[in-house]
């Protein structure tokens, strides 16, 4: 079975990707900043699934660290057959009065790192004639949730463009577009989600299972759950003025000075 490299593997969707891929008997390369969490997870995966789990500690907002991960993707020994670009962050701030350094860090993590790692992975996979790249975007890519939406919109369009370029190479590119998912994401971003009903939430297990099934069938866009597929369709068809008005309504409804909570 192919080796899978997962960024943001220590928590949230990345953690679930690691478990589902390991139990499917894929060796894994676990990438995140938290060495203690990664080391513990690697030991658990190896013991439970009998696979090989490599630990690669990296801060993907730092270009030198991104290059180390890119080098692993280019390696011919134990080649990576699936790249999961999952690492992300929620800033919970408005852009204009916000901390620009935090914005630059988020841009590096969710845009530049995705581009660099996708380039490295595709460059190694195409000559082999097989492989897959899964980039985690979001339903927020179709909305106006601050710079997070902008970053995820870039990921979505980039992945679609990459899929076109990779056609007939044996390598695929898929953009995962989840909505709200029960993970640590919003808690880590200190984003208050108490106003959102349970029906708005997805389980990480279902999101990851859907994403991996869509990768196997070569789908370019993967949007888990009927309700978020319907929301995505409505956002694509609605005039952009209506989408912007919805964003303003959400912010006013929450009574907050920060951006509306990020989706996915």
What does this structure look like?
Belongs to the short-chain dehydrogenases/reductases (SDR) family. GO terms for molecular function: oxidoreductase activity. With 264 residues, the chain is α/β, with parallel strands linked by helices. It has helices at 12-23, 35-49, 63-74, 100-128, 146-166, 185-188, 204-216, 226-237, 240-254; strands at residues 3-7, 28-32, 53-57, 80-85, 131-136, 171-176, 180-182, 201-203, 221-222. It has one domain (3-254): Rossmann fold. The protein is built from 9 helices and 9 strands. The strands form 2 sheets. The chain has a 7-stranded parallel β-sheet with strand order 3-2-1-4-5-6-9, with helices on both faces. The two termini are 29 Å apart. Residues 189-193 and 252-264 have low confidence and may be disordered.
Give the CATH architecture.
Answer: 3-Layer(aba) Sandwich
From the structure provided, what is the oligomeric state, counting identical versus distinct chains? Answer: single chain
How many strand units? 9
Question: What's the name of the CATH homologous superfamily?
Answer: NAD(P)-binding Rossmann-like Domain
Structural class: alpha/beta
- Helical residues, percent: 40-55%
Element-level helix/strand string? EHEHEHEHEHEEHEHEHH
Largest sheet: 7 strands, parallel
- Integer count of domains: 1
- Strand content of the residues, in percent? 15-25%
Family: Belongs to the short-chain dehydrogenases/reductases (SDR) family.
Protein name: Short-chain dehydrogenase
Keywords: Oxidoreductase
GO molecular function, one term: oxidoreductase activity
């Amino acid at each position: 079975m192919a080796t899978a490299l997962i960024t943001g593997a220590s928590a949230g969707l990345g953690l679930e990707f690691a478990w589902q891929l390991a139990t499917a008997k894929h060796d894994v390369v676990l990438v995140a900043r938290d060495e203690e969490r990664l080391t513990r997870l690697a030991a658990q995966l190896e013991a439970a699934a009998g696979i090989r789990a490599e630990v690669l500690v990296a801060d993907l907002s730092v270009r030198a660290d991104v290059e180390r991960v890119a080098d692993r993707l280019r390696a011919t020994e134990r080649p990576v057959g699936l790249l999961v670009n999952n690492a992300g962050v929620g800033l919970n701030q408005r852009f204009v009065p916000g901390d620009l350094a935090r914005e630059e860090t988020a841009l590096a993590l969710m845009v530049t790192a995705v581009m660099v790692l996708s380039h490295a992975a595709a460059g190694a996979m195409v000559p082999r004639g097989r492989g897959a790249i899964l980039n985690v975007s979001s339903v927020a890519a179709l909305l106006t949730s601050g710079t997070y939406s902008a970053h995820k919109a870039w990921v979505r369009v980039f992945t679609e463009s990459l899929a076109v370029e990779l056609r007939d190479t044996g390598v695929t590119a898929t953009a995962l577009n989840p909505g709200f998912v029960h993970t640590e994401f919003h808690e880590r971003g200190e984003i208050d989600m108490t106003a959102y009903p349970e029906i708005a939430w997805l389980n990480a297990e279902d999101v990851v299972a859907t994403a991996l099934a869509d990768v196997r069938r070569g789908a370019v866009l993967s949007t888990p759950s009927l309700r978020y597929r319907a929301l995505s369709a409505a956002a694509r068809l609605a005039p952009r003025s209506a989408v912007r008005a919805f964003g303003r309504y959400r912010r006013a409804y929450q009574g907050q000075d920060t951006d509306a909570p990020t989706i996915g």
